[in-house]
Amino acid sequence: MVADILTRPTTRRRRGRLVVALVGVAVAALVAAITVSAYVFPATAALPARADVIYVIGPPTEGRIALAEQLRSDGVADEILISVPSEGEQSAAKLSACQEAWVTCGHPEPFTTAGEMALLNSLYGADARAVVITFTPHVSRTRFIAWQCAAAEVTVIDVPTSIAFGQWVYQFAYQTGGFAKALAFPCS
Are 146 and 156 within 8 A, CB to CB? Predict the structure, then answer.
């Protein structure tokens, strides 16, 4: 009887720790499921039959620009807008795509996804339809920020990109931080 009384608190503490551990595992699994679906397998969007602009948001990689040019040749839109840094190898002065008559290259202020949506607003306005090209981990956050900040009707698509495991880990942290910033400071 005395032994039972002495072991009860220890058993309760173990059960309490087990419950806390199980809840922690369940929360971690839920967060992993949500982030994997948002960053690795974002919902695919149907391209509109016609848009006013195809918008490559930064960085302007070869794959994103090639997809924009392919969509233009397919007749999705006549114009391409490319978000570029103000200087460096991907600036308007150095990017050959920026020399095409149907391409506008602009540097958003600030140079963020929200800034890119502000640039879209300033050039195209609320009646426009835009196809925005980014890469897979950024699709869900871009859609969220476009929903918050873009006046135009925006369809976000990704260009297939191969990413190493370490880069995926970085993107999970970066995109989650970006979502938190977009929630805390919308359109800034």
Answer: yes
What torsion, rounded to 10 degrees, do the Cα atoms 29, 34, 39, 40 define? 60
Tokens 């087990």 map to which residue? 18
For tokens 């938190």, the residue is 180
What gap in Å lies between CA 106 and CA 120, rounded to an integer? Answer: 10
Q: What SS3 state is found at 103?
A: strand
Cα(53)–Cα(131) distance, integer angstroms: 6
- Other CB atoms within a 10 A radius of the CB of residue 15 amount to 10
pTM of the model: 0.86
How confident is the model over 93-105, as pLDDT tens digits?
999 999 999 999 9
- Cβ partners under 8 Å of residue 176, min gap 6: 35
CA 168/CA 92 separation, integer angstroms: 29
Polymer length of the chain = 188
Question: Per-residue pLDDT tens for 154-172?
Answer: 999 999 888 999 999 999 9
